[in-house]
């Protein structure tokens, strides 16, 4: 299964462009979900969400839809992966499991000033839950400031897998040791197009693939030409023969390019949305 979508969906400049003029804001997710088969939730990077929000997002999307979820910057940028048990507990208890079968991979994006630290990475990978049941067990150690409807400590299917992907932004990660470490822990390396700003490591290190397209020429701004989309389609078709589950997200949202690029790539891959653009 190849899934192609966008990173986030709440962007005011999209209103009246991608989103039809007058479309109620509360209908934007449903509108986007009819045109692509996955979306990356990035609000989770900035703050803990609520179980009620995840439950609503699940309700607003088709049965076969999948969300990827971006891990919190408190874990990756502030704690820098150190002593992860408590911060992971808060993150997983905040409601991700309310997505049920629609919960896809968790994205962990490291900051540009975070260099390759194999020991710290290995400790973090070991602490990550690999099933919904494990996430519930970790969540039991959550901060006591999270109470009541801020906490979800149940799982519909405790055996449902949780997969993880790592996006790196420092040149020191361009080492074979990283690939070995990711293979050992079944973590996917994010293949990230960042207009040449950060490393683009085109390898498969898990049983699924994860691509983030931040802009062909200018980070978060520029779109992709037909030739560029053709090239990415060829690569993804090739990689997906080795890792059958593949997730691709466009993050070039500044000039309303990402939803159109996502739909154009999906069409090239033969997975066009349920409705027209």
UniProtKB/TrEMBL annotation:
Domain of life: Bacteria
Alphabetized InterPro entries for the sequence: DUF72, UPF0759_sf
The protein's name in its UniProt record: DUF72 domain-containing protein
Organism listed in the record: Microlunatus elymi
Phylogenetic classification of the source organism: Bacteria, Bacillati, Actinomycetota, Actinomycetes, Propionibacteriales
